[in-house]
Structure formats: structure tokens, C-alpha cells
Amino acid sequence: MIGDKERQYMAGQKKAEPRRILVTGGTVFVSRFIAEYYVAQGDEVYVLNRGNHPQSPGTILIKADRHNLGDILKKYTFDAVLDVTAYTEADVCALFDALGEFRDYVLISSSAVYPESLPQPFSEEQPVGANKYWGAYGTGKIAAEKELLKKVPHAYIFRPPYLYGPMNNVYREAFVFECAMQGRKFYLPQDGAMKLQFFHVEDLCRCIDGVLCNHPAQHIFNVGNDAVISVRAWVEQCYAVVGKTPELAEVRSEENRRNYFSFSDYEYRLDVTKQQTLIQTTVPLEEGLREAYAWYREHPEEVRRKGYLEYIDANPEIFQTI
After folding, report:
1. Domain regions of the chain by residue span
2. What is the mean pLDDT of residues 270-276?
3. Would you say residue 24 has pLDDT above 70?
4. What does the pLDDT average to over 61-79?
5. H or E element, residue 312
6. Contact assessment for residue 31 and residue 84, using Cβ atoms and an 8 Å cutoff
7. Radius of gyration of the chain from Cα atoms?
């Protein structure tokens, strides 16, 4: 049964006119990209944040903390609430309790909700649970999903792997770009064979379009590229978009890889079969990395840089070519 704060729309409805959309956040990577994506589509996009960062052109700022909203949202009716910044049950409760009327609610969750002990690839039917590699981040997302579905049974939830693309302020591909631009040797953990699964942030937006326009019966979706890529191949592709060929070295010691590399020692894969009901193609990784590099070249100051290079330079005995 649909709650008082939701309005039921016919399945298969297509966008016919501009929508009023609320995006939580709206100033950093995923939430910013989503906000700008829907502005470009001609929608009326409201962003909910504390106003501490520059706002994207075309968005309408609702300046507030999501945990201290009072009645600020009660006067609005939204066609869609796109919740990108809910990490806990409390986050969901604070926003839901403050909302007025809305049609759809979409939560961007995470693949971190699947325990590492489950058989892979992870599917939506498998139970969620604590994952030792993700810790409180994963259990917080589990609680957020559970609370949302309790309050909004017809909400949609997306569980992506590693997101990438323009506006990515996380020091992942930007780290490799920086190494390539400086002509540095790149240090691979072990032999670089560990597999990674990515998803372009624009493909995430296209999946959101799929549920907002068509209201499928499925309400929880794993999303991501069907293909995975080894760390070694990913580094080579990052160097290639910079126009370089990497000199690779393998770190065979037991050194904590998070001191010098962007990913933990955890390989996993999502089953994204059900994503095909929303989108049939995804951005090729090489193309997405080119876009990410073009953005990084213009906005290096927006990336949350970590001290990987400083650590490597300070510990030459660890980083030797094998």
C-alpha cells in the first residue's frame, strides 16, 4: 500500500514535461553530476545542502542540514527525491520526516551491503550483511535501505560498484592520471591481477531515468559495467588516455596497499543482469576515462588528494621493480 506521502502514477509513464526534482547534496561528484544531468534535461532541480560549496548553475538551493530541516521542505511537492547522501538509518528518517508530498524516492546505496563471504557475482536476491572490508559504511547503507523500504515501500534502490567519471573528487583514477602526467613508474599491488568493476556516473543517471519513467516492478537493482577489468589493465588504460605507457612495478611485500594504492585487497563482482531492463548499453571504460581525465585536467584542485606519492617517495626500499 502506498503511503500518504506518495502518489501512484501509471507504470510506463514517460516524461512529458519538466519535473520538480530534489537532489540531496548537489555539490560533490555523484550528487553534483546527477543535479547537473537533470538541469540539462530541463527539469526544475532543487539541491539540499548546507551551502558551504559553490552551487551548480541552474540548480535551486534549499540551504539546510538534513538533520535539522524543520518545516523547510513541507511547502514543496516533488516528482522525485534522489537521495545520494543517505549513509545511515538516521539520515533516511530525518529527510523522510521533513518531506511534503512526493511521487518517487530513489536511494543511491552501495555494493558494500553484500557480505564478502557470499558466492559471487552478488545478486539482488542474496542476503545483505556486514562486510569486513567496508565496515560501518556497509552496515550503515544496509540500515538506510531497510528504513527507507519500511517508510516508502515503492522506493527504488541502486547498488553500484566503484563509480567514476567527470566530477570524481575521489583519488582513484586521478591518482593514476597524476602518476602518468609526471612520468612516474606505477606500483601495482602484487601482480595487478585483482579485478575491479566500475560504473560511469552518467549510466547511473540513465538507470534513474529508467525507474522514474517506467516504474518497473523490480525495486532493488545492482548496477555496473558487465565487464570487470584487472588493476593492471585499468592502470594501463588510465595512462593511455594521458598519452603515456606505464612502467609497472609489482609490490610483493606485505605492505598495506592503502598506503600507496586506491583500492583495498578485495575483489568482488555484481550480477547486473536486471540492469538490462533499464539500460542496454554502458559507457565504454576507455571513453569514460577520457572524460574523467578531461575533467581532472581542468579541476585538479577539486580532488581529495591522498599522500600515496609522498609515501612511495619516503619508502624507496619497499618500492622496487621485480
Report:
1. 20-159, 173-197+226-267+280-314
2. 98
3. yes
4. 97
5. helix 308-314
6. yes
7. 20
pLDDT of 252 reads: 84
- C-alpha cell, 157: 534502490
Which DSSP string corresponds to 254-295?
A: ---GGGT-SS-S----B--GGGGGT-S----HHHHHHHHHHH
Mean pLDDT rounded to a whole number for the chain: 94
The cell numbers describing 174, all together, are 586521478
Which stretch of DSSP H or E encloses residue 149? Answer: helix 136-151
Gap between the Cα atoms of 137 and 110, Å rounded: 9
Residue that the C-alpha cell 535539522 belongs to: 68
For 173-197+226-267+280-314, give the CATH class. alpha beta
Residues 253, 274: Cα–Cα separation, whole Å:
40
Task: Find cell 512529458 and name the residue.
Answer: 16
- pLDDT of 214 reads 96
State how far the Cα of 302 lies from the Cα of 29, in Å rounded to an integer: 10
Quick count: other Cβ atoms within 10 Å of Cβ 165?
22
Q: What is the mean pLDDT of residues 156-184?
A: 98
- Fold for 20-159, please state it: Rossmann fold (3.40.50)
Which amino acid does the sequence have at 190?
Q
